[in-house]
Design goal:
Blueprint lengths: L2 E5 L2 E3 L5 E8 L4 E10 L6 E7 L4 E3 L7 E6 L4 E6 L8 E10 L5 E5 L3 E5 L2
Parallel strand pairs: 2-11
Antiparallel strand pairs: 1-3, 3-8, 4-5, 4-9, 5-6, 7-8, 9-10, 9-11
Protein backbone atom coordinates (compact mmCIF):
# COMPACT_ATOMS: atom_id res chain seq x y z
CA UNK A 1 0.00 0.00 0.00
CA UNK A 2 1.43 3.34 -1.07
CA UNK A 3 1.54 5.92 1.69
CA UNK A 4 2.18 9.67 1.36
CA UNK A 5 3.34 11.82 4.26
CA UNK A 6 3.15 15.59 3.93
CA UNK A 7 4.73 18.31 6.03
CA UNK A 8 5.40 22.04 5.99
CA UNK A 9 2.06 23.79 6.08
CA UNK A 10 1.20 26.59 8.44
CA UNK A 11 0.32 30.25 8.88
CA UNK A 12 2.31 32.90 7.04
CA UNK A 13 1.90 36.59 6.32
CA UNK A 14 1.29 37.85 2.79
CA UNK A 15 4.57 38.00 0.91
CA UNK A 16 6.06 35.23 3.01
CA UNK A 17 7.31 31.78 2.07
CA UNK A 18 6.62 28.17 2.96
CA UNK A 19 8.07 24.87 1.79
CA UNK A 20 5.93 21.75 1.57
CA UNK A 21 7.39 18.25 1.49
CA UNK A 22 5.83 14.91 0.63
CA UNK A 23 7.46 11.49 0.82
CA UNK A 24 5.94 8.46 -0.87
CA UNK A 25 6.65 4.97 0.44
CA UNK A 26 5.41 1.39 0.34
CA UNK A 27 4.74 -0.81 -2.68
CA UNK A 28 6.14 1.54 -5.31
CA UNK A 29 7.46 -0.10 -8.46
CA UNK A 30 8.09 3.15 -10.28
CA UNK A 31 6.93 6.76 -9.84
CA UNK A 32 5.31 8.33 -12.91
CA UNK A 33 4.73 11.78 -11.46
CA UNK A 34 4.24 13.62 -8.20
CA UNK A 35 2.52 16.88 -7.56
CA UNK A 36 0.49 19.20 -5.39
CA UNK A 37 -3.18 20.09 -5.54
CA UNK A 38 -5.10 22.50 -3.34
CA UNK A 39 -8.68 23.00 -2.28
CA UNK A 40 -10.01 26.21 -0.79
CA UNK A 41 -13.35 26.33 1.08
CA UNK A 42 -16.26 26.15 -1.34
CA UNK A 43 -14.01 25.48 -4.33
CA UNK A 44 -12.97 22.44 -6.33
CA UNK A 45 -9.59 20.83 -5.91
CA UNK A 46 -7.15 22.24 -8.43
CA UNK A 47 -3.68 21.38 -9.67
CA UNK A 48 -0.95 23.62 -8.30
CA UNK A 49 2.10 21.96 -9.85
CA UNK A 50 3.40 18.57 -10.83
CA UNK A 51 6.66 17.01 -11.97
CA UNK A 52 7.29 13.84 -13.91
CA UNK A 53 10.05 11.29 -13.51
CA UNK A 54 11.61 12.93 -16.56
CA UNK A 55 11.70 16.24 -14.68
CA UNK A 56 9.01 17.91 -16.77
CA UNK A 57 7.07 20.43 -14.70
CA UNK A 58 3.60 21.93 -15.00
CA UNK A 59 2.23 24.88 -13.01
CA UNK A 60 -1.12 26.56 -12.56
CA UNK A 61 -1.07 30.03 -14.09
CA UNK A 62 -1.87 31.56 -10.71
CA UNK A 63 1.40 30.32 -9.16
CA UNK A 64 3.85 30.62 -12.04
CA UNK A 65 6.91 32.62 -11.04
CA UNK A 66 6.13 32.25 -7.33
CA UNK A 67 6.09 28.50 -6.68
CA UNK A 68 8.74 25.94 -7.58
CA UNK A 69 8.27 22.17 -7.56
CA UNK A 70 11.21 19.79 -7.27
CA UNK A 71 11.86 16.11 -6.62
CA UNK A 72 14.34 13.79 -5.03
CA UNK A 73 13.87 10.69 -7.15
CA UNK A 74 16.01 8.48 -4.96
CA UNK A 75 13.77 9.17 -1.99
CA UNK A 76 10.43 9.47 -3.83
CA UNK A 77 10.03 12.91 -2.32
CA UNK A 78 8.50 16.02 -3.81
CA UNK A 79 8.84 19.59 -2.58
CA UNK A 80 6.88 22.77 -3.23
CA UNK A 81 8.67 26.02 -2.50
CA UNK A 82 6.06 28.76 -2.21
CA UNK A 83 7.24 32.37 -2.30
CA UNK A 84 5.39 35.69 -2.41
CA UNK A 85 2.36 34.04 -0.89
CA UNK A 86 -1.00 35.72 -1.25
CA UNK A 87 -4.21 35.37 0.78
CA UNK A 88 -5.78 33.62 -2.21
CA UNK A 89 -3.21 30.83 -1.82
CA UNK A 90 -4.95 29.82 1.40
CA UNK A 91 -6.15 26.24 1.04
CA UNK A 92 -5.57 22.66 2.06
CA UNK A 93 -2.69 21.37 -0.05
CA UNK A 94 -2.70 17.71 -1.06
CA UNK A 95 0.22 15.69 -2.31
CA UNK A 96 -0.45 13.38 -5.25
CA UNK A 97 1.65 10.50 -6.52
CA UNK A 98 0.92 8.58 -9.70
CA UNK A 99 2.85 5.34 -9.44
CA UNK A 100 3.22 1.90 -10.88
CA UNK A 101 2.74 -0.72 -8.20
CA UNK A 102 3.74 -3.44 -10.67
CA UNK A 103 5.00 -3.40 -14.27
CA UNK A 104 1.40 -3.09 -15.55
CA UNK A 105 -0.70 -1.52 -12.75
CA UNK A 106 -0.67 2.16 -11.88
CA UNK A 107 -2.84 4.28 -9.59
CA UNK A 108 -3.14 7.75 -8.07
CA UNK A 109 -2.47 8.15 -4.36
CA UNK A 110 -3.16 11.12 -2.09
CA UNK A 111 -1.78 12.53 1.11
CA UNK A 112 -3.95 13.57 4.03
CA UNK A 113 -3.59 17.29 3.25
CA UNK A 114 -1.80 20.14 4.97
CA UNK A 115 -3.32 23.54 5.71
CA UNK A 116 -1.69 26.66 4.30
CA UNK A 117 -3.08 29.94 5.58
CA UNK A 118 -1.86 33.30 4.28
CA UNK A 119 -3.08 36.10 6.49
CA UNK A 120 -1.86 39.19 8.29
Amino acid sequence: QVHLVESGGGLVQPGGSLRLSCEASGGIFRVISMGWYRQAPGKQRELVADITSGWNTNYADSVKGRFTISRNNAMNTVYLQMNSLKPEDTAVYYCNARVYTSNVQWDDYWGQGTQVTVSS
